[in-house]
Design brief:
With about 325 residues, this protein is α/β, with parallel strands linked by helices. The protein has two domains: about 130 residues, Nitrogenase molybdenum iron protein domain (Rossmann fold, 3-Layer(aba) Sandwich); about 160 residues, Nitrogenase molybdenum iron protein domain (Rossmann fold). The chain has 14 helices and twelve strands. Helix 6 packs parallel to helix 12 and helix 7 packs across helix 12.
Length: about 325
Amino acid sequence: MEGVQVTDALGRVVMLPHLPQRIVVPGKGTWMPGHVLYMFPEAAERVMAMEARRGSASDFLPLIDPSFNMKPHLEHGAAAEQIVPLQPDAIVMKSYMAETLGEPLELLGFPVVYVELETPEQFFRDLATIGQLLGNEARVGEIEAYYQVRIDRVQQGVSGAGRPRVLVIQHSSQGEEIAFEIPPATWMQTIQVEMAGGAPVWTEASQGGGWTVVNLEQIAAWNPDIIFVIDFRGDPEALVEELKVDLKWQALQAVQNEKLYAFPLDLYGWDLPDPRWILGLTWVATKTHPDRFADVDMMQEMYDFFSQMYGMDRTAVEKHILPVLKGDL
């Protein structure tokens, strides 16, 4: 095959002399592009290194690539000096690192492809770019079809429905203090609620670039119909049970109406800009409009996701995913 040409997330046309065989994924959030790359069967052979954070480049990918942990993964915050010796023929990274890491690598002659993957629109765009990079555009079509069927089901299901007032909060433990944070108005958590037929109550208070701490007084002032609780590092189900017996929380409409839910996660949260966002969207729809999605079986949705997106059979899911699955399915 002749040279490969892709247009990345920054609109740059990147020329490669051939399909890359040595792909390196550096920088913060490598699991985002890494988990999309591994939706393609070629990734196990062609992704040679990702940056490791918190001890691992991904807690999930070793389950589908037995050689993953033996790869020469990059150290936390790896600079060009650590990447160059690997002699990659393509480098895939999040676009926010263009100036700090991308430009030095490009000056050394390495082709860099930027992705963003933060919203559904960016996911589909960057998925197509990665498919071109791996030379498997047929697989792009399969993945797009899987997602589109589920997006269409949600959109059709909520069409014409009222929009309950919804709050998404993340539990944040700071010492002995228990705090809650709201996501930015433009982030995946907000998008999931909007797509699933809910009305996010927090968007005016979250115009910044990261999670914003909110107190119980603010939550009570919003008094939403439904509350979804995220707990990345703990057990969201246990947290929700604690909140249900808290007298202050019992004054909230969502608690009184038994609509306080633990947002699901397995090794990664279903609310994140990870391929799992489609599970999160489907789940939010079933909780926001339960009467319209009574026929959706979230356990089956999960089995289908890991099977069709990552080739994991039911036995593998039961062995590796179910033991760490938490949340109000």
